[in-house]
């Protein structure tokens, strides 16, 4: 299965238990933390979804202001209702623990976990050529999007997922060598972009992955075979004829 | 499912395809690399096992001296044959890619990948109290072992796994606060210890995890309930009676 791991920690600021029409418990949790990036502390708020009986059990036990560690994976959902298309990138939690010896500090807006974790490790392929531009201060920034897959055991088929990527400085420059279809192993952190819809004035949210390390990969294929050649017969390699120039 | 991710890269130095009695293809691969730790380059050789049709296909395509990236998980196997017990910790590969732009250098013993990856992220519980001691140079070192589980879909039950842990310096000191049963999220790298069996003079190998980050966790349980109390009835909390001292 493709690599898809999310590690998030933070102070609990919201929990909500609901049930699907089929009766599956769904627990929504928000974790709030700050993590050190150089000399700054970056604020992050992550919403996670847990499914099943364990989620129902946890819903009773979770305490506001307590710090938790969650492990999970990214899941892309899209739908169409009344002709309008929607999509959402969920963090589906698989494990949830209380954090021991957590550095929780009271701040103006409430308690925050310092030294919080916000890490994603993900493999997949770029869905388009990356766009590289420079900010007004000449800082290079790359935008790209990654397609990745998962195995849906209940449906017996693979499912496709997408996430938008952002890479800054040296990392942006590394994206210049990549193109549509390039395979990569990424490490980074989740970030939420917020903006106001011009028409409805409603707040819009988009989750994206800020890339902190990119490893360019290539699929393993037959080295000798080019698309024009006939397929190799097992145990009977077809010799490539070289035309005289 | 518990977190269990292994990321390994290196130059291919061995590949071997065999079949189980039931006909499942099994591909064994060794990857050789060096990774920067401070100013040193630590050598690492990792053996990985891939199962299934894809493994059979890859066996034909892999090239000695080429650098590869593998993603997988740790699997503990134990057996008893003729009254002798054996065990082994396998890295079971799930993905395998060629590395693009790899820094492969020719060295005396053959090609080596520089800047290789050797990373493990694993959650579980300590199987015993950690042992903390000091080397002759007063460097603290902790030894412990971690039990972790996986879901065996074909058997329809959970499987138990074990790995030995080693932690140095400040990390060793952090283990002093942990005890048997402590839950942790670990990040580290795989290391192979080699020694000679005193009786048979045969070389023995043991794989262990050198811990680079430890996050102490606690299971989420009912805060109010002690083992002596009756279980809570849903929607009808049992009030704890406090005896006067």
UniProtKB/TrEMBL annotation, chains A, B:
PANTHER family: SINGLE-STRANDED DNA-BINDING PROTEIN
PROSITE patterns linked to this entry: SSB (PS50935)
Coiled-coil spans in chain: none
Family annotation (NCBIfam families): ssb
Presence of the UniProt keyword Mitochondrion in the record: no
Protein name as catalogued: Single-stranded DNA-binding protein
Stretches with biased composition (Basic residues): 236-245
Keywords: DNA-binding
Species of origin: Meiothermus hypogaeus NBRC 106114
GO biological process: DNA replication
One annotated Gene Ontology cellular component of this protein: nucleoid
Keyword DNA-binding belongs to the record: yes
Domain of life: Bacteria
GO function terms (MF aspect): single-stranded DNA binding
Region of interest (Disordered), residue spans: 220-245
Pfam families according to UniProt: SSB (PF00436)
